[in-house]
């Protein structure tokens, strides 16, 4: 990571111990899986946004730590379920829960994580925070199903793309920032401002992910994974809107029927680059990043705000 979390270093340690405790189970198999999940956790960006949002607007407290744990429980549950849906055997460079324990166990593990998150909030009367963080669960499911439906017909315009990624990716980050701010202020106006901040960061984050599929200089050979999965992301949506009828027809044919042939994937990537799809997408990503920074700069300048700015810039500058 090319940003420092020093300002919340002690709080992150408290969060990690509390999150670990929040997933413990008396069922041996479940406890073993939970230990594996904790061991293979990612960068924990969402809990960082919870803690920093709370610290920006007030003081971190027990409610903040529970909000951070709830966010991580929801995020982990969604990843476990996603790996079942996608039949993915790898997650963050490790075997996925699906790879090691198969579909039935993975679905139950995801359900367990969701239940633990709800109980963590309800047992502590964090009703408003639970409400804030329940919304993205609905939006993530809707976004995923909408994308599946649109992928079948290859009929996604730019407006639809942004609705999908706002639900699938940005909604949880938005709610993380909102819950963090609410935990330290109990001010709905401040919480909404931070929700909008998080939403813009989340959209920029997803656009960056979509660019990796077409990247060269920053990320090596383009992966073409979205093309293989017939996913229409912004670089390709833009290209299809600007391409000649003949090129558009050829690109759609490749995505539908030849999406596993390396030279055909390379042809699509080259077409996207030549049409300006990558440049256009990068410009859009920076627009959303700048919107997030504009909201952030409405708060007093201090070390917490600077750390959040660095975190925002990391989401668009990261190499993986």
Outline the low-pLDDT stretches.
none
CATH homologous superfamily?
A: Farnesyl Diphosphate Synthase
CATH class: Mainly Alpha
CATH topology value: Farnesyl Diphosphate Synthase
Please compute the radius of gyration using only Cα atoms. Answer: 20 Å
Approximate strand percentage? under 5%
Main sheet, how many strands, which sense, barrel?
2 strands, antiparallel
Provide the residue-averaged pLDDT: 92
Short description:
Helices cover 76% and strands 1% of the residues.
Task: Describe the fold and architecture.
- With 320 residues, the protein is mostly helical.
- It has a single domain (6-317), classed as Orthogonal Bundle (Farnesyl Diphosphate Synthase), CATH 1.10.600.10.
- It has helices spanning 9-22, 28-39, 45-57, 62-85, 97-122, 127-153, 158-185, 188-212, 225-228, 234-242, 245-257, 262-275, 277-296, 303-317, and strands spanning 90-91, 94-95.
- The protein has a two-stranded antiparallel sheet with strand order 1-2.
- Helix 3 (45-57) packs antiparallel against helix 14 and helix 8 runs antiparallel to helix 13.
- The protein is globular, with a radius of gyration of 20 Å.
Topology overview:
Blueprint: H1 9-22, H2 28-39, H3 45-57, H4 62-85, E1 90-91, E2 94-95, H5 97-122, H6 127-153, H7 158-185, H8 188-212, H9 225-228, H10 234-242, H11 245-257, H12 262-275, H13 277-296, H14 303-317
Antiparallel strand pairs: 1-2
Helix pairs in contact: 1-4, 3-4, 3-7, 3-14, 4-5, 4-6, 4-7, 6-7, 7-8, 8-13, 8-14, 10-12, 10-13, 13-14
């Amino acid at each position: 990571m090319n940003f420092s979390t020093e300002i919340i270093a002690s709080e992150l340690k408290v969060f990690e111990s509390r999150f670990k405790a929040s997933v413990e189970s008396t069922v041996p198999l479940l406890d073993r899986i939970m230990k594996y999940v904790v061991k293979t956790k990612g960068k924990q960006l969402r809990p960082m946004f919870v803690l920093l949002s709370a610290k920006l607007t007030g003081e971190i407290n027990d409610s903040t730590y529970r909000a951070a744990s709830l966010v991580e429980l929801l995020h982990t549950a969604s990843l476990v379920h996603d790996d079942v849906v996608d039949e993915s055997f790898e997650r963050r460079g490790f075997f996925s829960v699906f790879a090691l324990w198969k579909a039935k166990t993975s679905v139950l593990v995801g359900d367990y994580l969701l239940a633990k998150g709800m109980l963590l909030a309800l047992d502590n009367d964090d009703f408003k925070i639970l409400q804030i963080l329940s919304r993205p669960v609905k939006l993530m499911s809707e976004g995923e199903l909408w994308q599946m439906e649109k992928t079948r017909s290859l009929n996604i315009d730019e407006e639809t793309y942004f609705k999908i990624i706002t639900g699938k990716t940005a909604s949880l980050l938005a709610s993380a920032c909102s819950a963090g701010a609410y935990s330290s202020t109990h001010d709905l106006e401040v919480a909404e401002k931070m929700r909008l901040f998080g939403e813009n960061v989340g959209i920029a984050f997803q656009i960056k992910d979509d660019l990796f599929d077409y990247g060269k200089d920053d990320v090596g050979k383009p992966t073409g994974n979205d093309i293989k999965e017939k996913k229409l992301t912004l670089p390709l949506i833009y290209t299809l809107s600007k391409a000649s009828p003949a090129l558009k027809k050829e690109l759609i044919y490749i995505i539908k029927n030849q999406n596993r042939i390396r030279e055909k994937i390379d042809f699509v990537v080259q077409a996207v680059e030549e049409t300006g799809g990558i440049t256009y997408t990068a410009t859009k990503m920076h627009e959303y990043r700048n919107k997030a920074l504009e909201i952030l700069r409405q708060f007093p300048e201090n070390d917490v705000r600077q750390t959040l700015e660095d975190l925002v810039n990391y989401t668009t500058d990261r190499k993986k």
